[in-house]
Amino acid sequence: MGRTLYEKIWDAHRILESDDGQALLHVARHLVHDGSVHAFEFLRDRNLKVRRPDQVFATPDHGVSTLVHKVDAIADPEQRRVVQLLDRNTRDAGIVHFALDDPRQGIVHVVGPEQGITQPGIVLLCGDSHTSTHGALGALAFGAGASEITHVLATQTTWQRRSKTMRVTVEGRLPVGVTAKDVILAIIAKVGANGAAGHVIEYAGSTLRAAQMYVETHPKENLTVLIDYYGREYSDALEVCRWWYHDMLPKDENGARQLALRIDTHGERYAEGLDYEKSTEIVVNWLHVPNEYEAVRYVMGEEAFDADSLNIVKDRVRKVLFGTGVSVAAVIQLRQALDANGFNACKIVGSSGFNLFKCKMFANARAPLDMVGTGSFIPDNFNDTFATADIFMYDGKTGIKLGREKLFHGLTA
To answer: What percent of the chain has pLDDT over 90?
Structure first.
């Protein structure tokens, strides 16, 4: 059975569960502000240090002016004191601090997304009731009080009780003058002011709108859009392309950014509008062969085809060419749909079970794929992957995605 995003994040960060049903979760990012002074005092009183200063980020925002970025300009002496204490506490602990004289300083829940601190799929905590807004970027975010902030600073973990889940789907475009606040008020009107108590809400809606939000947040970056989330691979692909090439890109100052579409269709279903017969027709026409039999022979090669007397390899090839998930047929269909609508510049990224065998069959079939994501495939030999985003370097240090440590063996930076 599938899991919601909330359930996936919860399971990935859960360390242990207590007898009363609470779970201890790892906190990937902790945001602190000028209201967090008492938590640092509690740490000193108990002779404790900040457990993971590299995962804590601070900025003064609760009692400071948005117009004057000087500590001396704070009229209230107590507020001025806590802002100064935040600077001292973060300096002593080795925490990154976006101080008033730092151009990155701002409202803590804006700074997080702006600076790339807020990331999809993480647990984030901050001592503020608005922390859940980070959920808009796919994070599981909790607000906390002083005692809990102390616990997080000391352990980089938080005790939480698992919530129920609720999905809210918002479709269509908002009329002029209608804002997100109007949408949430309409939702409250339907479920009631207490209708979501005890729940984590996951909002669903337009793939296009998700792409637009990413561009609004990262206006200078290229864009890769996942198009299979709602099972409308080709419809959503064309909708995103129309916006990108007809609306967004012409307004871009240099017009140099690129769009890519990532297809990651689940292995138990066909991409939008396809079935086995339709997929076979697409591949047969693409390879200019008379039938399914000859298409399999084409990609396997004569010698391998004739040697497979038990049809074991042939069946694997059929799955790659005409089967469910990201098949050769699904990618050809996407490329042809894009080209037919004038979106030849759009790139295609494929990911879904791309082991070496599948990659070779795609290459032999001349599938119009620009990039492959290896996904869950973990090879015995790192050199077999040639490239992977699971291994990366940040600030001069090599890191690796959790669960991919096997790829790191023997690798030198």
So the answer is: 61
